[in-house]
Amino acid sequence: MAHTDQTMRRVLSREIAGTIGLLTDEHDFRAMRRYRSFTFHDHTTYLRQVEALLRTRASQGTHTTVALFDPEEYAEFCTHTGLDPDAPSSRTRFTAELAATGPTVPYEGQPLADLLPTLVDEAVRQATWEYASTLLARLGTCATCGEDLGRAAFIRASHLLLRILETAPPGNRHLVCSVSGPPETLLSVLHADEDTDGTTRLDEAEGLEFTSVLALGLATHTPGGLVMRTTTPGAPDRVYGWRLRGYGLEPLTAGEVFDAYCTDIESGDLISPESDVDYCEPPDLADDPTPGHHH
Question: Which of 111, 236, 268, 292 has the greatest number of CB atoms lying within 10 Å of its CB?
Fold first, then answer.
């Protein structure tokens, strides 16, 4: 009977998903060392042990996700909940919170060196989306008609993004939207890959973040731009874009796109153009300005 119980528990253990809160850089690792219960002394050794644990769990058929562990957020969490920050159980509680609300990346056997930048990118994407969404919500309502300005801008941005994808040539699309303004420039990236049947695949989280950043630029009339690069096997890449102007997008000329890609942002020096890349004007969006707010 005891043997049967142990076997059943081992089977059940494979049904339990887990999350590991990861300290991705040396600075965060040093911040956690102020707690006596955190017994690691070297960040490199810590990462090596985490990777070994991930491999062991994967070999046992256990699904694990990795979350970004932020020491400052952890300290705030402990203060808010009344937990002792110098206790492993508190770190476990915080990691469980991350699994429910924060960005996570599934471990699928990839090297930790490959997983780390993906996790950081996911955290940046969520933070950008939350920041843009907060600013959109603060816009309030139109004094003339009472319409929610943030919601109207999001609808407008969604419409423009749909038209961009509908008019794009076949292939995999890489879009970048940047909106300048205090305290810093917001940057969002969207991958829109095309399947063999012509269906466009979008990551939902990427799409929400991208549309929110574009909406913020439209609603606040903040300087910004949107550039798309399309890759098709056997053909040169196509690059074109628009600047944010008023409540819409103004096409960039081929020369403006070339200058943007072939100029070093920091020094202003010219950069040699890439081979097998066509810098061109965007297709006509035939944009109907109806969606969105117009007062």
Answer: 292
pTM for the whole thing?
Answer: 0.78
CB-based contacts of 194, cutoff 8 Å, min separation 6: 170, 171, 172, 173, 200, 201
Asked if 17 contacts 65 with a C-beta cutoff of 8 angstroms, the reply is yes
Token pair 């796109």 is at which residue?
Answer: 257
Consecutive H or E run containing 277: strand 277-279
- For residue 153 the two structure tokens come to 């801008």
- Helix or strand holding residue 30 (H, E): helix 26-32
Least confident of 7-16, 53-62, 163-172, 257-266: 7-16
The β-bridge partners of 277 are: 237
Q: Which residue has the tokens 């909406």?
A: 215
Angle between helices 204-220 and 149-167 (to 10 degrees): 120
Give the range among 26-40, 47-61, 99-113, 184-198 with minimum mean pLDDT: 184-198
Distance CA 289, CA 111 (A): 47
- Residue 173: what are its φ and ψ, rounded to 5°? -110, 135
In tens, the pLDDT along 62-80 reads 889 999 999 999 999 999 9
The conformation of residue 15, written as its DSSP 8-state character, comes to: T
d(CA 34, CA 12): 37
38, amino acid identity: F
CB 24, CB 98: distance < 8 Å = no
